[in-house]
Specification:
Largest sheet: none
Strand content: under 5%
Oligomer: single chain
Number of domains: 1
Number of strands: 0
Helix content: over 70%
Number of helices: 12
Distance between the termini: 25 Å
Shape: globular
Structural class: mainly alpha
Order of helices and strands: HHHHHHHHHHHH
């Protein structure tokens, strides 16, 4: 049992402290950092479950504040609905596909997300295409979330391509992460993967995540946000590459 492994418990706490610090500093990165580090050291399905409670709590404020909730829901509801609903399809493979292969897929997604963050390609989607692109990319995002626990590709690039203001984009990402996390928890529970022990551990992980966010907010005014983001994406690229390389040599 995980609760009897004190070193593993310390590792989980340290991971969420670090991930929370990153999110507190630059406003993103908690699910990517925590999931990537945990998946590199334990079963991917366990890592996905541990992420649930910290991600809900840390994204609740982000999703519900900003003054654009009604506007974003009217515009993004097809995308969000498909992203959340398709997670059930992705989790169907968790008991049939080798989790090492799924972890390698996670590594690829993290590396791709990092490359997009580092290169910042010009992303633009005309409003007339949202009617089909939103549901299609939402479905893709949901399936990949169900398979790997990662919420970011292609969902975050899609939101970045909509021409939203910075505040709207931050709130829109919060909505995506919130909807996806709740749907992932329901899907894992419905497939009998969400045990009581892991749920309690996920709830306990909220504390170091919040402590990290508080530390990150203090660091925010002392560090260059641009430089820190580059370091974050660079570290994420290395982490994703490591997960893939571990799968190749296994």
């Amino acid at each position: 049992m995980i609760v009897d492994d004190h070193l593993l418990l310390l590792w989980i706490g340290a991971v969420f402290l670090l991930a929370g610090t990153v999110k507190g500093t630059i406003g993103l990165g908690l699910p990517s950092i925590s999931l990537g580090l945990l998946a590199a050291t334990m079963d991917l399905r366990v890592a996905m479950i541990l992420l649930l409670a910290p991600n809900v709590v840390t994204n609740l404020w982000q999703a519900c504040t900003g003054g654009h909730l009604a506007l974003l829901l009217r515009r993004l509801w097809p995308f969000l609905l498909c992203a959340a609903g398709a997670i059930w399809l992705g989790t169907a493979a968790l008991n049939t596909v080798d989790t090492k292969t799924l972890a390698a897929l996670l590594g690829l997604l993290l590396a791709l997300y990092a490359v997009i963050g580092l290169t910042r390609p010009p992303l633009s989607l005309p409003a007339r295409h949202e009617i089909w692109a939103g549901p299609l990319l939402g479905l893709a995002n949901g399936v990949l979330t169900g398979l790997t626990g990662s919420f970011v590709v292609p969902g975050v690039p899609y939101l970045q391509a909509l021409g939203l203001s910075r505040d709207q984009l931050v709130q829109a990402m919060g909505l995506l992460f919130m909807a996806s996390t709740l749907a992932l928890g329901a899907s894992l529970g419905g497939r009998s993967l969400l045990t009581g022990e892991l749920l309690w551990l996920s709830l306990a992980a909220v504390l170091p995540a919040l402590a990290g966010m508080g530390l990150g907010r203090r660091l925010r005014h002392r560090l260059s946000e641009t430089g820190f983001k580059r370091a974050f994406y660079g570290a994420l690229l290395l982490l994703g590459g490591y997960i893939v390389a571990r799968w190749i040599v296994s």
